[in-house]
Amino acid sequence: MKIAVLGAGMVGRTIAVDLSDRHEVYSFDRDEAALQLLHRKAPAVNTQVADLTNFAAYSSLLEEVDLVVTAVPGFMGFRVLEAVINAGKSVVDISFFPEDALQLDVLAKSKGVTVVTDCGVAPGMGNLILGRYNEEMKVNRFECYVGGLPQIRKKPFEYKAPFSPVDVIEEYTRPARQMENGRIVTKPALSDRSLMDFEGIGTLEAFNTDGLRSLLFTMAHIPDLKEQTLRYPGHIDLIQALQLAGFFSEEKMEINGHQVRPLDFSSALLFRQWKLGEEEAEFTVMRVIVEGEKENRPMRVEYNLLDQYDPVTKTSSMSRTTGYTCTAVAELVATGQFTEKGVFPPEWVGRHPVCFEFILRYLTNRGVNWKAIINH
């Protein structure tokens, strides 16, 4: 098939490289340097400089392709997804945008296209796992813990981001929604911190972030739903200090006659501090817990992941775990294994055993190994 990948950042490049083994891939981005890097990694990928905020041009830009993958920054993700649907193309999306993608369901059905959103590691794999086991048991509790961290801890932040600092700051500032006792509650981001131990890593710090997204509505029958982010201990204190000092404020302030948003200034500085090197060792750690009952007996399912930078392909773990989950779902759509029309969060794909097992096999074949512990 002809597949367009919108966005040639670190994860977008990984997606394009993986898909190019089996399909004719086109990569679009405004950053010529990112496209050149992609071309060096995968000369077969057709690269083109394009302004992806020119939504009126999508019909002509995507005219020749059969399927689209969107891997753009979150602040433009919803508009990009809407433009792709309006162009009449099925799409698999990993853009972490704050808007509700299900608002586009009617449009997608009217265009006769398949749209699968949030197809990364988190959101993504947690949704797929919950969607699968929700079909087999009465779920009472769901917990998801996830983090991407550098192998070498470097003060002061002990953190590196494979994507835009603006998206990370958004994660640290947006109120976190959770389900407690059957009711949606809102808590401050970074709250409810705790320490957790992970084999091969040690002790990490867990805290609330707004990562449940569609699960709050598609799995509203489950009394308790929680998602938390993982960092090295001490990271929260630094972020909270910056937040309290106003470094993340969106209100403009005058400095030497210039109007400046502290958020823009902070993002520019943190980009240098948090930029993940192309060959910098890092890892992704994740734990998903599903608890409930099956045939009147307690049942507990736990999936664990520890994935590390691949020095052979020089691919970051976050790119692998996010990108390959996305390309697995893209392959499901491309090969006609998932053909429903409309907008679908990952849990609605994972409820199909064939789709769920396909994704796990696809990841395993690329060295992303999920380990399941199932107790009846």
From TrEMBL:
Residue ranges occupied by any Saccharopine dehydrogenase-like C-terminal domain in the UniProt entry: 120-367
Pfam families assigned to the protein according to its UniProt record, in alphabetical order: Sacchrp_dh_C (PF16653), Sacchrp_dh_NADP (PF03435)
Domain Saccharopine dehydrogenase NADP binding intervals: 3-116
Keywords: Oxidoreductase
Protein known as: Saccharopine dehydrogenase NADP-binding domain-containing protein
Originating organism: Flavihumibacter fluminis
Source organism phylogeny: Bacteria, Pseudomonadati, Bacteroidota, Chitinophagia, Chitinophagales
